[in-house]
Amino acid sequence: MKLKHFTFLILLLCFFFSCQKNEKSKATIQQDLLIDLSKLNNEIVQFQKLVNNNSSQKEIVEQFKKSRLVYKKVEWAIEYFVPETARFMNGPALDEMELEENRSFEPHGFQVIEEMIYPEYNSESKEDLIRELNIFQANIKQLKSTFEVITVSDDYVLDAVQQNVFRVIALGITGFDSPILQSSIPEAGESLISIPESLSKINSNNKSLAELKNLTEKAQKYCAANNNFNAFNRAVFISEYLNPISKKLKAFQKEENIKNVKKNSPLKPTIETLFDKDAFDVNAFVLSKEYNFTKEKAILGEKLFYDKSLSKNNDRSCATCHNPEKAFTDGLKTNVSLTGINLPRNTPTLTYASLQNAQFWDMRQLDLEKQSVDVIQNKDEMHGSMENIHAKIQLDKEYIDLFKKAYPGNSKPEAWQIQNAIASYVRSLNSFDSRFDEYMRGKKNALNNEEIEGMNLFMGKAKCATCHFTPLFNGTVPPSYSKTEHEVIGTPNEPSGKSISPDKGRYIYNQMPQLVGAFKTPTVRNAAVTAPYMHNGVFKTLEEVVSFYNKGGGIGLGYEVENQTLPFDKLNLTVKEEQSLVAFMKTLTDKKYQ
Where is the signal peptide (predicted)? Predict the structure, then answer.
């Protein structure tokens, strides 16, 4: 009996010290974050002194770079735990819009400051610059208050660190948050420091931690030795440094028996890298659980997709405009209405459409269910009636059997299930099996040298990946992939480029001046087989598209586009670089369309 009591006491003490150790590690991580924020605040204070003392532009720019490097070390936590504040510390220098309330907020933070001090710094901007620095300091103070009270548990730390690796891949090395100075490469190396430092607080003796430290040090050295933004080899950096780091983080998690964080995220918690074939979960974009994807729903949805009885005159199905042989496009500049009149917009691909939280070029619908109803009931496209379709289906034995398999427990088909089934079929159209995907999963001969050069241009000098984010190559913003962006690029109305497109895009539904001519950023996946391009189908080839961007979009062509979000400076791509860029985009074609 005494032995049992003694054993119990030992177990109790072990449990106590284990908990104490865990609480201590959590506190240490928070203390480190607070120390790093104090260091960042000190750099901003020094920045303010230089501005107040009318120091040279060179000194101000160097202090700016130094401040950003300190920020990068703690960015993993700020972005993960306090994303609302992060947006106003290192977000794009574009207005933040709340469309539901029809209002916008001016941007703040590093990217706004960057535009003030580079390529020229005018002392007349001194007051505005000081104002921005004061706002930045206020945000640091807010962060400190937050990190003093929140619980930073091991599972959240690991998730935040992993997400930061994905951020480096998709944003950090593309110039997304350093668009003018292009200081992204040394910053990417700095942001990786947090990985071994943070995880050492969980278990400093872990075997994978030692390997992680070695991998991150090598990655930092690679950034230091290859810090030229345009020349940086992103293909090598991702495949040989960041992907191995990502895999080793998953190994660390398993060894420490750290649970996955429960959250509604498009990125599955089980993935080892951002480029895993099943990395993305389409259910993250559905309305609620009953709308979740199943194979049975997709089978039913496929039959509905090809059923012409969904249209008023039984002569047009979804597949009429979304041809599977053309990656679910139609190959036309714009299709025609039921009365033979040209429709105003190009038919977009449905492949990867399920990995966005906005549908149509103007983003007027938030999900695929509403998108299907919009098209079916549109008098110019199918002019069908959901009420009539529902009635027909209830009299069709084959459909009734399929509905029972797709929605077990329901006595008869319901109207919402028709929409959900079609949407489920669209959700099945994501293959992730292009040659690019094969390369990122270790097949080094999947891409040739020209295509690798094109990838580096896409994610670097050409700035494509600052809007078409890796690996979806659409406007769904990493690393949370929860928001889909629009852009204003100043698309011409005809190939000759004499006038701008009169289509006002998203402004039609949300009348804010920033949205005039704004359109959803589509995926570049399968772009090689989905010509013509742009919302109006104005460009017939990828070469024409690249040339348009190389000139600086609408403003580069001489149009007045006051709200253009696309950088309007020339990219200065050579003919060879343009060709490499096109060659890379062709590697994004799924196997079934090759």
Answer: 1-21
